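Slide 14.
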Amino acid sequence: MVSKILLKLKSSSKFVNLILIAAVSFYLIVCLPKPAYAMHIMEGFLPLEWAIFWWVVALPFFILGLRSLTRITKATPELKLLLALAGAFTFVLSALKMPSVTGSSSHPTGTGLGAILFGPLAMSVLGSLVLLFQALLLAHGGLTTLGANAFSMAIAGPFVAFWVYRLVMQTGKQRLAIFLAASLADLITYLITSIQLALAFPATTGGFIASFAKFAGIFAVTQVPLAISEGLLTVLVWNWLSSYGREELKMLNLIKPEG
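Slide 15: predicted structure.
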């Protein structure tokens, strides 16, 4: 009798979790889109020297990421499907393009989940491939600005997510760690984008500092609700994974110890 009740409660919680995922997704797609401010930086927008600079900075992370992915897939080929899920999650969330300041757009990033699962180097590859496909298929971002967009979204964001998760997990609060990791990965992406735009286009009066303050101040208005929504959605997806991908999470040593 008790086991039947527990089974019913478990099934009910799974259903509620799916409903919540759908609700947050609906909010991100329908309710939240409005004139906003941030990244991807569009094709040809950055001066050539800055476009080359960010390509040079991003490439070493991509190469190290390829090595990381190779190790993961060779050691645990069973995780390939979960890798694909992490990439798809990033693709879908970051494709929710919202018009923004000239030469840019605003959207969630979706990189926090993959960084928690596989580490930031693996996400540097998955995130860069997502940006490449979006540039080629959706005209979202660009090839010349791919290095800059990859550094902000596929490198800086995942590294912040990974270390925030590790830090907060010392308290034993896994869902809080996931929420903060995903939210801050989103925010740091736009902070880096602000820096990139300020370096490329310093203000006539005040230079880099004034330009950065302007971009970051504008971005903060819309990125805070975006980041909170992404954090909540990532926690809900984690709950779903805990139910349906438990074995994979055990392989990654990410299941929270009971008791």
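Speaker note: The chain has two domains: 1-32, 39-254.
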